[in-house]
């Protein structure tokens, strides 16, 4: 699996990765729970589309994935993102949660 | 001309507006100079495409436009963006400038 090094994470690649409601939902869920297996997400898309969304987030440097037996575990790369783009992830999580509440 | 009110500016609309090299170039130029007329930008696109890019930035709340005679003057909505999304605009300008240097 490809994970970009911390210094290679691009703010614009991260913003592009977040520019999708499914991926933003994944990130919001990971903001609330440190580690979540792929199959535990209740996503409104099929399995291969879901895998693609996880991959986009991973290749942009937003999440880290590791395999544990047959499960693939996801976590936010919060320490790296906070170092590279201070305050950005908190803003995104805050706004995503606010939007989510506004549309319910 | 439509300008969203400060409280209606959406971080995701702003990120989407910035997700284009021409628009990012406009924003970077406005980060260095407080007010720039549309015709003063040296953009790699035709006039109507350029107008569209300015409109996207304006409707997302990134820039303010005002007409002065036959000229349309642009400025960043920095105070509003800094209040709504502290640190975000500075991050974008810093990363855009860094990328620009890296690719020359």
SSE order and pairing:
The structure is a homodimer of 104-residue chains.
Chain A: H1 11-18, H2 21-32, E1 36-37, H3 47-60, E2 63-68, E3 71-76, H4 78-84, H5 88-102
Structural summary, described in words:
By secondary structure, chain A is α+β, with helices and mostly antiparallel strands. Chain A has one domain: Winged helix-like DNA-binding domain superfamily/Winged helix DNA-binding domain (Arc Repressor Mutant, subunit A), CATH 1.10.10.10. Helix content of chain A is 54%, strand content 13%. The first copy, chain A, is built from 5 helices and 3 strands, in the order ααβαββαα. In chain A, β2 and β3 (71-76) form a beta hairpin. The longest helix of chain A is centred in the C-terminal third of the chain and has 15 residues, at 88-102. Chain A is globular. The A-B interface holds A 10-12, 15-16, 18-19, 24, 85-88, 91-92, 95-96, 99 and B 10-12, 15-16, 18-19, 24, 85-88, 91-92, 95-96, 99.
